[in-house]
Amino acid sequence: MNSSAPSTTSAPAVPNAPDRPRLLVLHGGDLPPGHERIDADPRLGEVVYTTADGLDAALPGTHALLVWDLFSEALAASWPKADTLAWVHAATTGVDNLMFPGLVESGTVVTNSRGIFDEPIAEYVLGQVIAFAKDFPGTWDLQRERRWRHRETERVAGKRALVIGTGPIGRTIARKLTAVGMDVRGGGRRARSGDADFGTVAESSLAETGADGGPTLAAELPEADYVVIAAPLTDATRGLVDHRFLGLMKPTARLINVARGPIVVESDLATALERGDIDGAALDVFEREPLKAVSPLWGLPGSLVSPHMSGDVVGWRDELVDLFLDNLARYLDGRELLYVVDKSRGYVPG
């Protein structure tokens, strides 16, 4: 049963695959591209596809689950039916939708799709930085109005960026921004110096000093021209970007969120944009998606909205399937799985 063993969150996990295990794929209507490659593995006893409505009936007797319905929270409600589930693979980087008590406290191993989105998201962030600095939105607005109005724009090189989240996505962003001459700092679980990608990393809290006496965001936010949110959604980061956080930013600074919507308190951000407390925000994720048409974030000064697509480039679904097939082969061979989530933290460490 899924609860027969205690949670293992630090050591590499090798779930025991029985002979010809049953694989369940939870999807939202669209099957994984090339799913025939999954179906054709002769070592699998059965491959079953279901939507959330059929999850209760499909889970019993399942040994491995691919969550292809990317942000579905259906597994939490159906968890009592997961009597033999040993491994859950998420076709996402963030796994906050899977970190419910039943799964966290069980012996079921969770893996994610680390690495697939790093470069595309970093390119998106760099694009938004350049769009802000060179006022591309203003140029497009003027073009639609057929107005010729000369303006001066900003340099990118020499600006300070604070990237909150020092995992693979945050590090790829840091390297991309450093390459164009920006001064990049980081925000993470603990403060440290001499980091290969960030130099200085501050503790991601608003306390005056960190738990170990090191710097926190309270010291870094007032110096940053761009603040990039690239952290996982955990209890520690939920609601991190609130009125206090925004109040520490420069009035000329911009916020870019490519992580998870609930890290930002949207009502506080809307107020900050409306009052001009910060100069802009590029938002790819939101508290609730899709963003409703009545949200003020669509039209506030300096607000750039995109529909949770910063990491989605041509071929991304195929790459997700390739990664899953690699892990599936490891599972069937009894080898160590890639990208095992530390369930006590809610992300893959290291």
Automatic annotation (TrEMBL):
Q: Does the keyword Acyltransferase apply?
A: no
What are the recorded GO MF terms, alphabetically? NAD binding; oxidoreductase activity, acting on the CH-OH group of donors, NAD or NADP as acceptor
Where is each D-isomer specific 2-hydroxyacid dehydrogenase NAD-binding domain found?
127-310
Where is the sequence biased in composition, kind Low complexity? 1-17
Write one Pfam family the protein is assigned to: 2-Hacid_dh_C
For the region Disordered, what residue ranges are annotated?
1-21
Which chain regions cross the lipid bilayer? none
Keyword annotations for this protein?
Answer: NAD, Oxidoreductase
Give the PROSITE patterns listed for this entry: D_2_HYDROXYACID_DH_3
CDD domains attached here? 2-Hacid_dh_1 (cd05300)
This chain's protein is named Phosphoglycerate dehydrogenase-like enzyme
